[in-house]
Recover the amino acids of this structure.
């Protein structure tokens, strides 16, 4: 049952979740998932989770916030929140995003134009909790009340809100119900940015209160800064794994593949998302093969954090973000490479090429570019002999938000698939108007409690609809189909979602990267680089 | 009474100008933030703008000359400013109410400009104004004035009705929002009524305009018109202090945020400003940040908390 919520409800003292979703409430899916009663039932939160953590927002919990034991502890946490809120609006603490944040606080007209653009709001069947402005409205009321110290007149003008621990606890969870895809911001007539509000709140919770999902912080950015990669691979292990990938790729393709490490003066320092090395070794294998075949002088780096292009700080913590970006640039500086090329990882693209641009000053300002453009130039230059008939199966292209809407790399990947995939078809909408895969801003790697159920049923629903629609003319299991997702996190989300809905078993929908399609079409390579089996 | 009316109007206009400038300066003085652009960015090379692309689509983009496509920006901005193209595209229901309101206000601003022009011409070229030009101008500002007021009032009423009845807007509507829209309806309604019923013996619009600016107490202004003018002026003075000043905010949200794709170049002025920000001393309390108020931003960013933990 859909519940009508008001911003004031966030302060409700009772320990019940504010909303509960049923499959019947959600946006309908197309054939073959068009009957809600046949959809999977959501796994419930365990009694243990409900007992230990603050689970008072909705049906899931992403952050595992321990319940304060005493009213004093609650007060202390609220006090910390207020202190963080104040810091968010000072230049000393938040010069990085102060101006856009203040503009968004001051000028939202609450016209709700953004709501129609939000895939989470739409997929939830229009649940008020997930409306992009719901979270922002609470933040705005807090801003006018506590940061600008508006009195009664301000409350009359901007609305009032009661600040207590339940509100803070719910707000922490609610900042992790947004993919930060910023599709809402794109449609705002004024230019207000609800995605930014979620981003800034996440920063407040992490930087002031030390609260963040463990997948992003403890097992994410901290592990990367400790051993070198969020996968846990240290330099020795990663070199071993890459050597194995080289061997396997050589065997599969009949072309000798060798990955260079720490080559001083190379033209290109390639930055993979290390998740590829662990989960999709065919991707780094294909990169090595293509770059070698194109005659490019390239290298990987075995420096701490520099063989893993991820930068989870982008989603929740400026300090962690800057630290990892600097590590990446320092590795490139040490090797004296001409440029850094970011592999198939959307957030690594945006983190290093766009957001870190104003952190990497002086000799850390080493040129950074997308692998999409480099691959496009290689494919279009004729340096590789390509046979598109090897890719004679339906292919659709997912646009990672970080790469497209937030960086403007739209056409290079399309030029490639148009050239080498004769049955390419676009999703709708696509390009800068794309929908997030539902795994954005860290969700793809967050699976605690029953959070996966939420991201399959709600945040990923729109993408699933797009994929099914793109293949609506060939849904049968006799036609193998390929969702090309040139981003590691998107690939993870699409993999998990296709598996959850058994789309490979019943409809032969596979997913993978872009560079694999290139190798699959290379005449000099043994046919069948793309293996039609679930992985 | 005229002296008082003049005083309030001039003070209100001054307050509007000062308030607007103060807000613009407040925004402009914020530090340059990290890049946070959203594509499409209309000043990109036209080859990229077509599909929303950027210079990142070029191999070795930093070796190519930067092209700032001013025409692209103008092409985007003109329909956005004058016709609210974004709202038309993404929220047609609201556009039908919001466009008449805003366009009405534009016409009223245009009317003030036309009356000012007529007042100046009346002094510098009275001969011209006695002829066809004067008559033409009179009809023009009469038409823009009346149609502007009617459009703005109808738009504001329609917006108010929607705010109070549409479920998605109602939840977020505050007393302040209702007051703002009512203020437009009342102030412009009185102004319109005052103009309609000012009587044939009352001074002309141009004489009135001149009298207001010169504090000419000899000119007699009809009571209702005086109330309409004063309330409209007070409303204008109030705008810069509310979210309705989005005509200022929007400049920054577009030019400084959405479209700010300016890459950092070594030795640039931008780099100098960033160097200053890196000396700021943050005070975030979480232990992994390690910001104790003595370390600079640069020091925090180059400290590895994992290594500190090991020690």
């Amino acid at each position: 049952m859909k519940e009508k919520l008001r911003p004031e409800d966030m302060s409700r003292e009772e320990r019940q979740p504010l909303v509960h979703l049923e499959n019947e409430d959600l946006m309908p899916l197309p054939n073959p998932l068009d009957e809600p009663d046949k959809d999977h039932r959501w796994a419930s939160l365990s009694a243990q989770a409900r007992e230990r953590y603050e689970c008072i927002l909705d049906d899931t919990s992403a952050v595992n916030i321990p319940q304060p034991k005493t009213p004093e502890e609650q007060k202390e946490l609220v006090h910390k929140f207020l202190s963080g809120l104040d810091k968010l609006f000072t230049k000393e603490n938040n010069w990085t995003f102060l101006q856009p944040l203040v503009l968004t606080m001051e000028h939202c007209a609450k016209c709700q134009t953004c709501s129609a653009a939000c895939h989470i709001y739409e997929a939830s069947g229009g649940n008020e909790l997930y409306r992009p402005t719901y979270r922002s409205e609470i933040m705005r009321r807090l801003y006018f009340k506590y940061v600008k110290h508006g009195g009664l007149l301000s409350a009359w003008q901007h609305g009032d809100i009661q600040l207590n621990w339940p509100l803070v606890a719910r707000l922490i969870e609610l900042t992790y119900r947004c993919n930060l895809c910023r599709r809402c911001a794109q449609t705002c007539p004024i230019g207000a940015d609800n995605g930014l509000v979620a981003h800034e709140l996440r920063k407040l919770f992490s930087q002031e209160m030390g609260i963040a999902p463990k997948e992003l912080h403890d097992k994410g950015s901290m592990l990367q800064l400790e051993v070198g990669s969020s996968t846990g691979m240290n330099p020795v292990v990663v070199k071993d794994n890459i050597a194995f990938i080289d061997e396997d790729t050589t065997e599969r393709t009949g072309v000798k593949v060798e990955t260079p490490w720490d080559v001083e003066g190379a033209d290109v320092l390639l930055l993979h998302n290390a998740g590829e090395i662990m989960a999709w070794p065919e991707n780094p294998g294909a990169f090595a093969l293509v770059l070698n075949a194109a005659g490019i002088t390239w290298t990987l780096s075995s420096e701490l954090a520099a063989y893993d292009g991820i930068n989870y700080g982008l989603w929740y913590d400026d300090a962690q973000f800057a630290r990892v970006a600097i590590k990446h640039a320092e590795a490139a500086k040490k090797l004296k490479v001409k440029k850094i090329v970011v592999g198939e990882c959307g957030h690594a693209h945006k983190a290093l090429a766009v957001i870190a641009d104003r952190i990497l000053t002086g000799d850390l300002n080493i040129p950074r570019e997308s692998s999409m453009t480099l691959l496009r130039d290689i494919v279009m230059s004729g340096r590789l002999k390509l046979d598109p008939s090897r890719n004679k199966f339906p292919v659709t292209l997912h646009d990672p938000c970080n790469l497209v809407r937030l960086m403007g790399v739209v056409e290079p990947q399309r030029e490639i698939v148009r050239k080498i995939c004769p049955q390419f078809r676009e999703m709708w909408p696509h390009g800068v108007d794309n929908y997030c895969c539902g795994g954005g801003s860290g969700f793809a790697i967050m699976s605690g409690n029953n959070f996966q159920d939420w991201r399959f049923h709600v945040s990923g629903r729109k993408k699933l609809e797009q994929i099914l629609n793109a293949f609506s003319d060939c849904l049968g299991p006799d036609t193998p189909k390929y969702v090309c997702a040139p981003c590691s996190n998107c690939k993870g989300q699409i993999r998990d979602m296709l598996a959850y809905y058994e789309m490979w078993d019943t409809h032969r929908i596979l997913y993978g990267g872009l560079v694999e399609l290139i190798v699959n079409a290379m005449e000099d390579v043994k046919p069948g680089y793309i293996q039609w089996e679930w992985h | 009474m005229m002296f008082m009316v003049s005083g309030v109007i001039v003070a209100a206009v001054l307050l509007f100008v000062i308030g607007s400038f103060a807000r613009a300066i407040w925004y402009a003085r914020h530090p340059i933030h990290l890049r946070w652009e959203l594509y499409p960015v209309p000043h990109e090379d036209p080859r990229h703008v077509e599909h929303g692309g950027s210079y990142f689509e070029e191999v070795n983009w930093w070796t190519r000359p930067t092209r700032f496509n001013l025409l692209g920006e103008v092409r985007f901005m003109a329909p956005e400013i004058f016709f609210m193209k974004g709202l038309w595209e993404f929220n047609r229901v609201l556009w039908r109410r919001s466009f008449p309101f805003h366009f009405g206000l534009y016409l009223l601003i245009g009317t003030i400009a036309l009356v000012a022009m007529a007042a100046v011409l009346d002094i510098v070229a009275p001969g011209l104004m006695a002829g066809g030009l004067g008559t033409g101008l009179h009809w023009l500002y009469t038409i823009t004035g009346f149609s502007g007021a009617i459009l703005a009032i109808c738009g504001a009423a329609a917006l108010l009705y929607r705010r109070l009845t549409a479920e998605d807007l109602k939840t977020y509507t505050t007393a302040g929002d209702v007051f703002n829209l009512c203020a437009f309806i009342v102030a412009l309604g009185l102004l319109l009524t005052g103009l309609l019923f000012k009587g044939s013996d009352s001074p002309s619009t141009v004489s009135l305009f001149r009298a207001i600016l010169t504090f000419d107490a000899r000119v007699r202004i009809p009571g209702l018109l005086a109330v309409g003018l004063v309330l409209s002026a007070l409303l204008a003075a109030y705008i810069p202090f509310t979210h309705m000043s989005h005509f200022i905010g929007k400049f920054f949200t577009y030019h400084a945020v959405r479209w700010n794709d300016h890459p950092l170049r070594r030795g640039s002025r931008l780099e100098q400003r960033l160097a200053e920000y890196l000396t700021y001393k943050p005070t975030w309390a979480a232990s992994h940040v390690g910001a104790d108020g003595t370390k600079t931003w640069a020091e925090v960013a180059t400290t590895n908390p994992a290594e500190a933990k090991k020690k």
Summary: The CA atoms of residues 116 and 133 of chain B lie 14 Å apart.
